[in-house]
User: Fold these one by one.
Assistant:
Number 1:
Amino acid sequence: KNLIKKEAPFTTRRALDTCRQIAEALNHAHQRNIIHRDIKPHNILVTTDGQIKVTDFGIARAISASSFTQAGMVIGTVQYASPEQSRGGEVGPQSDIYSLGCVLYELLTGRVPFKGDTPVAIAMQHLENEHIPVSKIRPEISLEVERIVQKAMAKDLAFRYPSALAMLRELNAAQSRSAMESELLVETDLPTQTWKSIKTKDSPPLSKNKPEKVNWWWLILGFGASFILVFISAMLILNFLNRPRP
């Protein structure tokens, strides 16, 4: 959370890599029937070499319902709570995925999906409102990355990622494409000219389809020479035909 306050919004590659590592931890936990229930930036540690550590596993199980009214505790939790958590319903692996979607949203935009004056107001937004699309805040974000956020934060479980592994696969694919695009941009980067300037400065002017000027003197000379050759040939033929035979 401290890094978000200081450095967000993150680059797409950094945000994807961070959430990819969180998804790996969640997949490992879910395979062992452990549901975190309180995924939020406050419970994510980052080592000096960029490794992600997910902490406080299972702590939400020890929190009573009455503690949700405590100042500071609720704000830090309800901003990332899934709709089913907000309504007090059954919590499963997909609840952790929704919370991870909220974290990815915050990494990309620098803001939480929903804000409100009270925890109840924020919880109601998770239940009823749609968050502002990532692309509205950062138009350069690809549709692929935005779709990951949308799918992770789907209010209906049927449209949400069915597992952390499913989300992890799409995070890996998006991160790979993002890395390839970055490499291509570096390879094609020119320090003094953009592609537009290259096109306008170095490219030949476009043809306007004007007809070329005809050199009439050469045309007349050509016709005259042809006429003379035909005339001489005709005279030779006539002379040959009219020549007296022995």
Number 2:
Amino acid sequence: AVFNPLSTKRLLTMQYVETIKASNVEVIEAAGLDRHIIADRICDLTMRQVFVYGFFHGDPHPGNVHVLPGNVICFLDFGMMGFLDQQTRRSFASFVMGIAQRNERITAAALLKMSSAELDPRRPHFEADVADFMHRHFYRPVGEMVFSKVIDHLFHLTSKHGLTLPSDIYMVLKSLSLMEALVSALDPNYDIVAKSRPLLREAKLRLMHP
């Protein structure tokens, strides 16, 4: 909450929240909180922000994701927020679903829908490059995935084929990557792919509803 009577044009006075950093596993356990529930809620909240509402926290690093009593998640610092319109949300959901299903055709088609281009790329070569992108970054342990390399590879892939992605797509990837690292630290056995499938289906159904 913002305290307007105590704020000015140069000073923002906000509510103090007594929390535990979501990355502070030892303190979380000492407080009797449930790491699995916390991981599940962080994953659920982040994905709903992106895929259901299209308005998401653009920088959910451990310093900005805290835990309140009762395993309640508390997001801080909303200075960096992203927005996806319905069409981009639908295409991005298909993009992620294609990666989860290891289907380069779905992934490539979704990437084309998210992008702008003067000419459509040659589909066989484009799909082959998308398949290489998927296998190089996503089908490996979470700890081995380097987000900067994912972004760099995606940038070169789209540039190579004359495509331009909306800037908020890169922010989405950053947000999901930070969420994945935090969730994996809380619960190393948490299956983010299994969690994503029903949420993605729900999001796509909502977006298709008249």
Number 3:
Amino acid sequence: MLRNTFLHLPGIGSQREHVLWERGILDWGCFLAAAKDGRLREGICQSAVPLVRRSLDAVARGDARFFDALLPRRETWRLYPEFADRALFLDIETTGLSAHDDQVTMIGALGGGKLALFVNGSNLDRFPAYTAQFPLLVTFNGSQFDVPFLRAHFPQARLDQAHIDLRFVLASLGYRGGLKAVERNLGLRRDPTIQGVDGFEAVQLWHRYRRGDRAALMKLALYNLTDVVNLTELVKIAVRLHCQRLALPGGMSAAEPQLGLRYDAEYLGAWIIEALGLGG
């Protein structure tokens, strides 16, 4: 979908993008060919052709960040099919809402098809090096909460990647509210053991763990990683719904990339026990 996108070019909005598609200019290669053949207005060619060439180069280099400042926030979903295998799904837990007064307690992540969990007092210091390998972040409300919080606590971390904040992508489709409400509206369900757990209870679980309750850490980790895993489903739903809404012309693929694995509660539970050494 990214290579079919013209919204990041000067003077091209959604209506003009559709006009280009209807004229058979379906991707950047077609755009450059049409410019060369004189099928585009001179003004568009002069301003847009260099940017199209830079776009092709950015994709070849795996530089998702190039497009981040050019695409409207509600349209960042277009990055996902191109960068799905290099996307980092991310969610954090904290002791409160203040990035300056509260602490990060846990960071759950999924990148390259592999889970990762960073826990305060254990391996939280490894997070900056880990996140540097991914060119694209996927969060829910991360631009307002997770990323500013992480920047305050890890000033050395690379957190300047392109960013798909699903809160805004899904809101543009009519799905508004918090993550749990959006999940319910889109048919995603949570394991009964964490049904009803929210941010307030997550703080209490952390304090219980600090007082010696290892089961509380297990529950908190399951809650956190469920948030992360559900992001992988939400972004695929968002891509599909947006492509349907665009009514793509023939010859344009709306296929969804697949991560290949489903991380259900049983799998997550076993993974957490091993990762945190909670067995025995």
